[in-house]
Design a protein that fits this description.
The structure is a single chain. The protein is of the alpha+beta class. It has a single domain (6-172), classed as 3-Layer(aba) Sandwich (Aminopeptidase), CATH 3.40.630. The protein has helices spanning 15-26, 30-39, 94-106, 120-123, 168-172, and strands at 6-9, 44-53, 56-69, 74-85, 113-117, 129-130, 136-137, 148-152, 162-165. Strands 1, 2, 3, 4, 5, 6, 7, 8 and 9 form a nine-stranded mixed sheet that branches. A hairpin with a 2-residue loop joins strand 2 and strand 3. Helix 1 (15-26) packs antiparallel against helix 2. The protein is globular, with a radius of gyration of 16 Å. 34% of the residues are buried.
């Protein structure tokens, strides 16, 4: 990892740079558009972090609201997405540092769980495990079971199971799961 890297909460002036990093990381404007709409939705909690090196935003991660439809109650949880590193800074440990340090900064929040759709080879090193064996159902059949992952947070104790429910902004952008490229 690069020395001099700073992980901090995103500031309003960072938003154009964040949008640029997300677009570069994913190769199009679909995720930046989702992020724009997340910011104005009920899912947005202001839990948006940047990685800054030499006064430039080179990475970003956001945590937003979702729910688990537990048999006894609807439980607030977090979703990690998107995680973006500028392509010229990939494979240098910045993504790992961004997730680890931002999770520490989440501190004493009440949400007991953090979900994501992602590469188990990367995220398992950060404490994420497959969610289905723990009694969670994916919000979409398009999410490969290996990619549907969860990590406990030091929030409210107790056993939670059920379906993960994404806020409508994710569905409006068709950003849940994978779409087949052949139609």
């Amino acid at each position: 990892m690069s020395s001099g890297l700073v992980i901090r909460l995103e500031e309003p002036d960072d938003q154009p740079a964040v949008r640029s990093v997300v677009a570069a990381a994913f190769g199009d404007d679909a995720l930046p558009a989702l992020l724009d709409d997340l910011r104005g939705s009920a899912a947005w909690l202001g839990l948006s972090f940047v990685a800054v090196l030499d006064d430039e935003v080179i990475g970003h991660v956001a945590y937003s609201r979702a729910w688990v439809d537990d048999p006894t109650e609807l439980v607030d949880v977090l979703v990690l997405s998107p995680l973006s590193i500028r392509p010229d800074h990939k494979s240098r440990g910045i993504g790992t540092a961004l997730v680890v340090e931002s999770l520490e900064q989440l501190g004493g929040r009440d949400e007991p769980l953090l979900f994501l759709e992602g590469d188990p080879g990367f995220y398992s090193r950060l404490g994420f495990v497959p969610a289905e064996p723990l009694g969670f159902r994916s919000p979409s059949v398009r999410i490969p079971s290996r990619a549907f992952q969860v990590r406990p947070l030091p929030g409210r104790p107790g056993r939670v199971t059920g379906a993960l429910v994404y806020p409508d902004v994710w569905w409006r952008h068709d950003a849940v799961g994978l779409r087949s490229s052949d139609g």
